[in-house]
Structures are given as structure tokens and as C-alpha cells.
Amino acid sequence: MLLGGIILLPLLVLPAYPDEGGQAVFFILPGCGAVLGGYLLALLIRGRPRGRLRKHQDAVIVVGAWLLAITLCAIPFLLTGNYNFTQAVFECTSGWSTTGLSVVEVEAAPRIFLMYRSVMLFFGGVGLVLVMLSVLSDSYGMRLYSAEGHADRLLPNLASSARTILAIYAGYILAGTVLYSIFGMDWFDALNHSIAALSTGGFSTRAASIGYYDSPAIELVTVLLMLLGCTNFLAHLYLIRGRLKNFFGYCEVRFCLFATAFVSPLLAGLLLTGGLSDTLPRALRDGLFQTVSALTTTGFQSIPGFAGFPGAALLVLILLQLIGGGTGSTAGGIKQFRIYILYKDLIWTLRDKFSHRRVVHDDAIRRPDGLQQVGTRTRGEVAGFVLLYLAVFALGSFILSCYGYPLAESMFEFSSALGTVGLSAGITAFDAPAGVLWTETAGMLLGRLEIYVVLLAAVRAAGDLKNGAAALAGQLKGRMRR
């Protein structure tokens, strides 16, 4: 029922664009159908006793909900007749995962569909489960909340935490829309770009993305929104309350600011020497913007494209896309928290080798709410996840290169999909091979929900199906004997 309401939301732009009234049927049919179908399903379970979730069933529910959201939201694209099933699923996966890779020609697309993509970015950014929990009690959702990748409660009550996150999210979007309007965007572009920047989604209403406006002020607003979008929601609560020491002391915020300050001039130099920026001020502008866009996994562009980009610049962007944004934010990637743990683990290991063996050290990192101890188990889990992530990255890049694309561009494109970034080297397009789009679709889903959750859901679902089939076979066999 919630998904049906989400599908119907773009109809709100029709009063401003009445000439697109004919497009309404593409949303009314699947939207109302989903609401009615959800209501009938709810009737089937009404009055049944409630049970406890078994091991890893939370992962099955989360992944199942996301697959259902992507499938239902693909129907409006299919009904237009302009997109096949692969393209429609790809676009919706990109929207829900806040990636921003697209097969839509935005300059020719109806505005109701452009708003529809932004609606998916909005709800995909905060998370489908989190939106549901904003109207449910704690007893329904802590395991689902954690399975979707949310690590922190902002308030003791989980439903209140969900509503607080939504309020913060909506407030930033409103502020971004106002600032964009002040600096020259019309209201429609301002709203869409504000949602896309904060959700680190990167869907634009212009083919040239942010580069269309060629405005330092608009780029600055976008950089600020992207940085806010990639920051942990718990850190936002301290920022809003004016506790700046807690906010800027947080290890991820410090890592993000340091990486931006270090990489931006490096990328600017590569753009300048490669002839992609004609002056030093322009190179510094583009270097800052593209560094933040890649690191926050947003995917906005201030330069024409990345096809034929210098190899060194592509490598820098690939590394940023792999690192990604903060935990508990709208961003994807390995996450800065894990990279910071690996860095500190290296420092701690070297320190221990040179220290006296009887010296005891306190290994901890700083979070917004205080110090967090980092034990051997945490270090092992982080290292394991990073290794698995890089293995998936290598496999996806290999598959894209098998279609004849250069290895550097294949790595760039799949790191963009897996990191839910949205920058493209020209591989992703309306006429891209179906195998390429499905590979990137899988990468986007794995990147958004994080690989372990999807693997656990697949294993648990396979086991449940096997047990269910065995039980059904036993029942049939018993009836035959009678």
C-alpha cells in the first residue's frame, strides 16, 4: 500500500503542467492496483497470531521489499511503451538505490517522469524500511532497521528516530530548493536537484547535469548538499543542536573533509594538464566538484563526460567511488568508516610492533556520541567486507570488459554502479546491451543494501523454499498412502 502511494505522488505536479495529464494513467493504474492489492493481502493475515522472526528472515523481508518496490515502480515506465523490462527495472533500481545512472533522455522526458525519478531517490535515500517504521512501533522493526543498513537510533524510540530523520531530510531539501531558486533555477529544477543532491542520487533534469548552469553558486550549494547527504544521520542531530565539537570530531566527517582537501587539488591538476579545464580557477572548481560528487556517491557532473578521460584521473575517481560516503547516510560505497578502521588498524599494528610488549593501548575511534572501542572482531569483519566488496567489483568489471569495453572504463562504470554513484564513462545508455544493464542492476542493489544482507537473504530464502517443498512432498505422499 505504501508503494502504491509512492507511485501516485508524481501526480501532484500535474496542476503545474496540465498538458501532461495524459501521462497520469501510467501512474494511476499501478498505484491504485498496489494499494488495493496491499489491502487485500492485509485482510488475509488479519487476526492471525504474531510470531518472532527467525534467523536471517529480517534480511529476506528487507531484500524482498526492495525487489517488490523496484518491480512495481517499473510498471509506469513499461506502460509508456518506450522502455523494455530491462530498461525499466534498471532505471528504478538506479532510483531506489540512489545511484543516478540512467537510460532516460531527460531533455525529452515528461516532467511527471522526471519527478517520479526524484520521488524514488527521496524514499530510496532514507530507506524503505525507515519510512515504514515512521508509522510503526519499535516491536516491529529494529531488526529490519538494522538489516537495511541503519546503525544508529537518533532517539530512544525507533519510530521517533525515523520521523526525526525524515524531518531533517525534508528540511535540508527545502533549504536547498530555496537556495537553488535564488541562484537562478526554476522551481521544478530546484526541487529535483535538491532531492538528488541530498539523497546522493544524481538524477538531473538536464543532460549536462549541474554543468548546464555553469554557475559557481549553484555548484557550491550542490557541494554542501552532497556533503550533508553523505554524513551519518546521528551526526546531523549533533550539528542541528549546535554541538559542533561532536560533529567535527566524528572520524567520518574528518576523513571526508581531509580526503576532499587532499584529492581536489590533485584532480584539478590532472584536469588542467589533460586539457579538460582551460584555466586554473576552472580546474579548481571542477576538481572540487567532481571529488565531492564521487566521494559522496552522488554522480553529478560539472564537466561534459568521462569517456576518454586521462587514466590517472579515472583511477582517482574510481578510488573515491569505491570508498563512498558515511555509514547510516544516503551514500553507498565501502563506506568511510570501514576505510578509516583499516587505516587505524595499520597504524595500531605498526605502533604495537615498535612498542614494548607490556604496554597496553586503548584502540578506539571517535563517533558523534563518544569513543567507540575497536576490537579484533570488528577489524576482522571490516577487512572481510572490504575483500568481498573488491571481489564483486572485480567480477562486475570483468563482465563489462567481456562486452568489448576498455578495462579502465569498465572498472569506472561498475565502481560507479556498485558504489551507487552514477558517474558514467559512456557505457550506460538506452541502447546498452541487456547483459550490461543487468550486471549494473545487480551491482546497484548489492551496493545499496550491502552485500552480506543480500547473500543472507538468498541463503535463507533458498533454505525456506527447500524446507517448504520437502514438507509439501511429505503431505502429498501421506495423502497418497491413505
TrEMBL record:
One of its GO terms (biological process) is metal ion transport. It comes from the Bacteria. The keyword Transmembrane applies. Keywords: Cell membrane, Ion transport, Membrane, Transmembrane, Transmembrane helix, Transport. It is found in: Cell membrane. InterPro entries: Cat_transpt. It is a multi-pass membrane protein. One of its GO terms (molecular function) is monoatomic cation transmembrane transporter activity. The chain crosses the membrane at residues 28-47, 59-79, 114-136, 164-183, 220-240, 252-272, 312-334, 386-408, 414-438. GO terms for cellular component: plasma membrane. The keyword Ligase does not apply. Pfam families: TrkH. Belongs to the TrkH potassium transport family. This is TrkH family potassium uptake protein. It comes from Anaerofilum hominis. The lineage of its organism: Bacteria, Bacillati, Bacillota, Clostridia, Eubacteriales.
